[in-house]
Amino acid sequence: MNIANYDSFLAIADPHRREILMMLSKEKLPMNSIADRFDISRPAISRHVRVLHATGFIDIEEKGRERICMLNQAGFNEIQDWMDHFEKYWISQLQSLDEFLKKNESINNKKE
Amino acid sequence: MNIANYDSFLAIADPHRREILMMLSKEKLPMNSIADRFDISRPAISRHVRVLHATGFIDIEEKGRERICMLNQAGFNEIQDWMDHFEKYWISQLQSLDEFLKKNESINNKKE
DNA sequence: ATAATATGTAACATTTGTGTTACACAAATA
DNA sequence: TATTTGTGTAACACAAATGTTACATATTAT
């Protein structure tokens, strides 16, 4: 597929790509060192890195003929923003539960 | 594909499925009410909901012939745990930057 | 009892995503 | 300069994901 059609969510849907991100959270790595650690072909990894780069999860520093890959926060932020929306939902759910319990408590008190 | 092969990351990779989750963060909805709001077919939505349910993003309450869908935190937690790993990375990066700046500061002080 | 409603699912076509091999090229090394 | 190293990408095959239509079934309403 055309790389332009990928978004952050699709980018992290692939286990290989998540493994690449995990590796880069330990150390910066040049393209081929990443590929060496996988059992799939170098071109496949090259493409995965391209996807992660295009979606803002990876920065690439050109150093002679090498391309050093490192994490870029932008991609992660997109996911986190989305998660934050639902975080708010769970917090409001807890509040509703809390209110419910308090109401019940006062009813129970009346019964006694 | 077999639903058993889906994981949380793949579950939220599809825009329709993310839209379903967004809807359910506003209100609980029966299966068909969800489908009504999309321009794709009801069976397609049925499958999306099945995926979200299997991966722990949705709970389903059977109510007569209706199946009421609502959010379930479990799926979101899986994503958040993964995000937390990288959150730690960014914090440690900030610390490194901080240490670097402090070291530089003391060098600059010596120069003066 | 019949009809309408709310669903599930199989079969199939199509689209999308991933992997491979083969080839190209620039930078570093001998 | 010739070779090796680090990389990109096109072409293709295959696998996986998504959508559709058609049909089945259980519950509710008439």
Which ranges of chain A are low-confidence, i.e. pLDDT below 50, for 5 or more consecutive residues? none
CATH class designation of the domain at 3-74 in chain A: Mainly Alpha
**Number of contiguous helices of chain A:** 5
Strand proportion of chain A, as a percent range, falls in 5-15%
Listing every helix as H and every strand as E from the N terminus to the C terminus, the arrangement of chain A reads HHEHHEEH
Whole-number radius of gyration of chain A?
Answer: 22 Å
What attributes does this structure have?
64% helix, alpha+beta, homodimer, Arc Repressor Mutant, subunit A, 112 residues, three-stranded antiparallel sheet, elongated, DNA-binding
Q: Overview of this structure, please?
A:
Two copies of one chain form a homodimer. With 112 residues, chain A is an alpha+beta fold. Chain A has a domain at 3-74: Winged helix-like DNA-binding domain superfamily/Winged helix DNA-binding domain (Arc Repressor Mutant, subunit A, Orthogonal Bundle). Chain A contains five helices and three strands. A three-stranded antiparallel sheet of chain A has the order 1-3-2. The model of chain A has no long low-confidence stretch (mean pLDDT 93). The structure holds a DNA duplex (30 and 30 nucleotides).
